[in-house]
Each structure stands twice: as structure tokens, then as C-alpha cells.
Design goal:
The mean pLDDT is about 85. α1 runs antiparallel to α2 and α2 packs antiparallel against α3. It is elongated and about 60 Å long. The protein has three helices and no strands. By secondary structure, the chain is an all-alpha fold. The longest helix has about 30 residues. It has one domain. About 70% of the residues lie in helices and about 0% in strands.
């Protein structure tokens, strides 16, 4: 068995695991009860699934130019999904869309009274 055969088997395993994580993320978005839980399901396993799929593609392609592009996609996805989920969660908390009975710790509860919602367009 050569190293290319081993790389192909690892690529297949990464692709299957990544697809599994993406499936778990999709099921979590549909089945979880509140917005914050759905956001967690949409960001964490989805990003891990994407990283595994791209690792499988990188193991299968084995070209330096493709590896650079795939690494750039991973870095950008990991940085933008964190910021986007934080902003959506904060906006949902400000809009009152968070179920407080499901929160274990509410670090923004005291600050929420000081927020002033904008009225109308800027």
C-alpha cells in the first residue's frame, strides 16, 4: 500500500466525517428549541464539518496551489462565523428573542436596561 492509497483513505474518512458534522448541524438547526441553541448548531459543527471536508479535498488533490486556497477558505470561515454568530446573538438578545428560562448564566441581563433601541432609519 503506497502513501497515495493511505492519503485517499484518509481523504474519504475526512469527507465522510465532515458530511456527518454538516448533517448534525442541519438537524440541530431544525430541532433545537431556541435561537441561541440553533446558532450554536449552525456555527460549531458546521465549521468543523467544513474543515474536515476541506482537509479531505486537500488530501485528495495534493497540489500546493489548491492547498493555499483551501487554507484561506478555512481561516476566513473560522473568523467570520464567530463574528456573525456573536452579532446575531447580541441582536436577538436586544430584540427580546432569547428565552431567559433556558439560560444558565445571563451576563447581559444587567446591561439590557441601559440599552436604548434606535427609532426609525438613521
Amino acid at each position: 500500500m503506497s502513501w497515495t492509497d493511505v492519503a485517499d483513505v484518509l481523504a474519504a474518512a475526512c469527507l465522510l466525517a465532515g458530511a456527518g458534522f454538516a448533517l448534525v448541524a442541519a438537524i440541530g438547526v431544525l430541532r433545537l428549541p431556541d435561537l441561541l441553541s440553533r446558532m450554536h448548531a449552525a456555527t460549531k459543527p458546521q465549521v468543523i464539518g467544513l474543515v474536515l471536508v476541506l482537509a479531505g479535498v486537500a488530501l485528495r488533490l495534493r497540489e500546493p496551489s489548491a492547498l493555499g486556497i483551501l487554507a484561506l477558505v478555512v481561516v476566513l470561515q473560522m473568523s467570520t462565523s464567530v463574528v456573525a454568530s456573536h452579532m446575531v446573538g447580541r441582536a436577538a438578545f436586544r430584540a427580546g428573542q432569547v428565552r431567559h428560562d433556558l439560560l444558565v448564566v445571563d451576563e447581559l441581563g444587567d446591561e439590557a436596561a441601559d440599552w436604548q433601541e434606535p427609532r426609525g432609519a438613521p
